């Protein structure tokens, strides 16, 4: 019941304050903390969070302002040592194998990549880089990031994708604004995924997002505690647009929900709110896919 109440509380906050892109509730050094990502200044949203989480330390990130600061530093490129081809290949294999498990355990991961350790006794050595929304805030119910994965050091980097900033955007990228075809509510693209179902010869290419972002019927799916295909996918077509109608007047339909699950899964009561969107168009850029 606690998990369900938490999900409903999050949904209400995101609906009430459209400036709130996402937020993390957890602990920093075992003390309650909240980090909120905003499109811009919003004193009402900040006041709401301070009142609702009055026992937590509070941090607000103005994404627009922060991105402007990062763009000013974009020319300050640090060149990485050239990596051995065999090591690079092995790192890519590990990332493909471990990405889903890591994403399930750590909800604020943005992406996972291969890289080199920046400093310390392992400086320059090949490593696995976990990009996340916060390096020290541990979300409620989760653990610290691993220090090693299959013998390789793990480097944690803090940052964020440009949630919802897609005016004039021509290609689909991590963090792009998306929404339902007949709704102004906005969400963002998560990880790009390739799926091949047992009864299909051609793999589906698309991305993962939150089920409540892509589905108008997500509450019914949540209450039924079942897969979307077992609930009502055969009777309805749920299409997704980019950017969301709330972020742009020139939104275009980019795909349909192929599968989703909302609710507590199995005896362990693990909460899942995820949807797979099968894209109608080719995905631009050099995006790394996770195989499902």
Structural notes for this entry:
- The protein has helices at residues 2-16, 43-52, 63-72, 85-105, 211-214, 218-224, 228-231, and strands spanning 20-28, 31-38, 57-62, 109-116, 126-132, 138-139, 148-149, 152-158, 177-180, 187-188, 192-195, 204-209, 239-242, 252-265, 270-279, 289-291.
- The chain has 292 residues and is an alpha+beta fold.
- The longest helix is centred in the N-terminal third of the chain and has 21 residues, at 85-105.
- Mean pLDDT is 79; it is low at 285-292.
Q: Helices, strands, pairings?
A:
Layout: H1 2-16, E1 20-28, E2 31-38, H2 43-52, E3 57-62, H3 63-72, H4 85-105, E4 109-116, E5 126-132, E6 138-139, E7 148-149, E8 152-158, E9 177-180, E10 187-188, E11 192-195, E12 204-209, H5 211-214, H6 218-224, H7 228-231, E13 239-242, E14 252-265, E15 270-279, E16 289-291
Parallel strand pairs: 2-3, 5-8, 11-16
Antiparallel strand pairs: 1-2, 1-6, 4-5, 7-8, 9-10, 9-13, 11-12, 12-15, 13-14, 14-15
């Amino acid at each position: 019941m606690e998990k369900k109440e938490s999900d409903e509380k999050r949904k209400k906050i995101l609906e009430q304050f459209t400036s709130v892109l996402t937020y993390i509730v957890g602990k920093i050094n075992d003390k309650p903390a909240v980090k909120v990502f905003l499109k811009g200044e919003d004193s009402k949203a900040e006041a709401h969070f301070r009142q609702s989480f009055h026992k937590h330390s509070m941090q607000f990130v103005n994404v627009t302002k922060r991105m402007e600061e990062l763009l000013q530093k974009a020319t300050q490129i640090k060149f990485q040592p050239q990596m051995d081809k065999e090591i690079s290949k092995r790192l890519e294999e590990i990332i493909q194998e471990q990405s889903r498990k890591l994403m399930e355990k750590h909800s604020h991961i943005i992406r996972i990549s291969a890289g080199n350790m920046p400093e310390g006794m392992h400086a320059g050595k090949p490593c696995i880089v976990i990009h996340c929304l916060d390096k020290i805030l541990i979300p409620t119910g989760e653990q610290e990031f691993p220090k090693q994965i299959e013998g390789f050091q793990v480097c944690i980097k803090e940052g964020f994708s440009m949630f919802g900033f897609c005016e004039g955007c021509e290609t689909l990228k991590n963090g792009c604004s998306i929404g339902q075809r007949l709704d102004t509510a906005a969400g963002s693209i998560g990880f790009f995924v390739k799926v091949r179902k047992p009864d299909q010869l051609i793999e589906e290419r698309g991305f993962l997002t939150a089920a409540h972002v892509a589905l108008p019927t997500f509450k019914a799916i949540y209450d039924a505690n079942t897969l979307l295909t077992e609930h009502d996918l055969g009777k309805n077509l749920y299409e997704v647009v980019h950017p969301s109608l709330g972020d742009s007047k020139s939104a275009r339909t980019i795909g349909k929900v192929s599968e989703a699950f909302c609710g507590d899964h199995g005896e362990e009561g693990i909460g899942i709110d995820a949807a797979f969107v099968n894209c109608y168009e080719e995905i631009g850029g050099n995006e790394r896919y996770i195989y499902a």
